[in-house]
Amino acid sequence: MLVSGAGAAGATVKRDTQLVIRDISPNPVVVKKGSETTAYFDVGASSDVEKVELSVAPASATFRTMRTKDIKDLEGWRWAIGFNENDYAGKWKATAVAFDKSGKEIAKDDSFFSVEIEKGKAETRISRFSADPYKVRKGKSIYFSGRLQVDDRGWEGVRGKRVNIYYQANGSSAWKWVASDWTSRGGKFDARTKAYKSGTFRAVFNGDRELDGAKSRTDYVRVYSWRR
Question: Which among 39, 87, 106, 151 is least buried, having the fewest CB atoms inside 10 angstroms?
Fold first, then answer.
């Protein structure tokens, strides 16, 4: 990416050309998912400099492509550049090049900065949730099973996460906790509770720092009393 700015020129006393990237702020440039962070580039130049061009690019030689970016030319030798989650995360290089009135390159300076992309929480889901049997006598056990999965370029099981089972009795609007289990390999969980009254069950994962929470589909169980 390349951008030019205009500045004051014309010195009555000949002097050595000075050019320096004085500040890059913020550094590192931290970008949150779904938003943009503006970085400001401040260049100092001596009075014999007529024009300054600023370019920024990932420092990694293996990074071959770059999006076109909106560049804002500020007053003096200053520029504002916006970065978002689609930009390269890592070390970047800023290069300032100074030119005289005839367009001749007379000075150059490099400076490094970094771009950090904050990852958002990964999406999860609870699949294959089941409460069995669908009809059970009061006091007997109801068994729950299912899988907790994360979307990591495809749905994969998540191990070592707690999944809670909630119950809503017929005629009630409240959901009550009845059981829980920690997921095993493949994200599988199993739990059980005693049958009390007909109602609906569902599994819930509350999420954590890296994973979003998830709720399963509901499953209804009919509970009956033994009669002679």
Answer: 151
**Count of CB atoms within 10 A of residue 58's CB?**
18
- Report how far residue 45's alpha carbon sits from residue 29's, in angstroms, rounded to the nearest whole number: 24
CATH topology of domain 2-118: Immunoglobulin-like (2.60.40)
Q: What is the 3-state secondary structure (H, E, C) of 161-211?
A: CEEEEEEEECCCCCCEEEEEEECCHHHEEEEEEECCCCEEEEEEECCCCCE
Q: How far apart are CA 48 and CA 13, in angstroms?
A: 9
Burial class (CB in 10 A: 0-12, 13-18, 19+), 25: exposed
- 38 CB contacts (<8 Å, ≥6 apart)? 80, 81, 82, 83
> What are 110's two structure tokens?
């490099």
C-alpha–C-alpha distance, residues 24 and 173, integer Å: 56
Distance, CA of 33 to CA of 173 (rounded, Å): 36
- Spatial separation of the C-alpha atoms in residues 36 and 165, rounded to whole Å: 39
Tens of pLDDT, residues 108-139:
999 999 999 887 788 999 999 999 999 999 99
Contact 112, 44 (CB under 8 A): no
Domain ranges in the chain are: 2-118, 124-224
What kind of fold does domain 124-224 have according to CATH? Immunoglobulin-like (2.60.40)
- CB-based contact 100:88 (threshold 8 Å): no
Stated pTM of the model: 0.55
Task: Give the sign of the dihedral formed by CA 202, CA 203, CA 204, CA 210.
Answer: negative
